[in-house]
């Protein structure tokens, strides 16, 4: 982990911390992931930096080897968990793919705000978080990954993303590392 700096206009992206997903099995206690995501949210909001809350309502179309879900999700499945304390100023992105940038207007919205860097956390490390990080990198954003504020249902996916993929996309650090850099910028 080598976290060096945060750009002056950095946005926080929280991926898929929604009612239908946080109850699924994960390799880390979800309450700790939510607690750390909330700490980041509080710090970004306090500083007036952009916050993006991402939820997913469906999968991308296309043929896959793994059978797709055929029945609709239960009511409220896509609702953000209350612990996030959704604010009117939050940017809300509803995705239908793994990554938050594909088939959404997130890139344009962030660039309109002058954002040059994103901090990403959420679930699942090897799908939603990694895909969002790849897309952010491909769109020219500096990427920071809050590795203790993310989890996955599979340890091998989580570990592979953190050890092999994330170092190629940006910098990684803990929630506290990120908060320390925010504090350093304020002094």
UniProtKB/TrEMBL annotation:
InterPro entries: Isochorismatase-like_dom, Isochorismatase-like_hydrls, Isochorismatase-like_sf. GO terms for molecular function: hydrolase activity. Residues 10-176 form the Isochorismatase-like domain. It comes from Salinicola corii. Keywords: Hydrolase. The keyword Transferase does not apply. The keyword Secreted does not apply. Coiled coil: none annotated. Pfam families: Isochorismatase. This is Isochorismatase family protein.
């Amino acid at each position: 982990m080598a976290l060096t700096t945060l750009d002056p206009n950095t946005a926080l992206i929280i991926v898929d911390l929604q009612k239908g997903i946080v109850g699924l099995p994960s390799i880390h206690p979800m309450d700790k992931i939510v607690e750390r995501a909330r700490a980041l949210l509080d710090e970004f909001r306090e500083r007036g930096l952009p916050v993006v809350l991402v939820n997913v309502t469906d999968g991308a179309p296309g043929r896959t080897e793994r059978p797709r879900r055929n029945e609709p999700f239960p009511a409220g499945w896509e609702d953000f968990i209350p612990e996030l304390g959704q604010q009117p100023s939050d940017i809300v992105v509803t995705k239908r793919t793994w990554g938050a940038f594909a088939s959404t207007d997130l890139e344009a919205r962030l660039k309109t705000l002058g954002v040059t860097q994103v901090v990403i956390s959420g679930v699942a490390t090897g799908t939603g978080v990694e895909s969002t990080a790849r897309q952010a990198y491909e769109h020219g954003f500096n990427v920071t990954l809050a590795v203790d504020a993310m989890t996955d249902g599979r340890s091998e996916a989580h570990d592979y993303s953190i050890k092999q993929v994330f170092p190629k996309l940006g910098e990684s650090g803990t929630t506290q590392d990120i908060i320390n850099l925010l504090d350093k910028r304020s002094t």
